Amino acid sequence: MSDQDNPFDHSRIDDVIHGRLRLGIMAYLSTVSPAIFGELKDKVGATDGNLSTHLRKLEDAGYIRQEKRFVGRRPQTRIHLTKNGRKAWVLWISQMQGLMRAAE
Amino acid sequence: MSDQDNPFDHSRIDDVIHGRLRLGIMAYLSTVSPAIFGELKDKVGATDGNLSTHLRKLEDAGYIRQEKRFVGRRPQTRIHLTKNGRKAWVLWISQMQGLMRAAE
Question: Which is deepest, A20, A95, B3, B72, by most CB within 10 Å?
Answer without folding.
Answer: A20
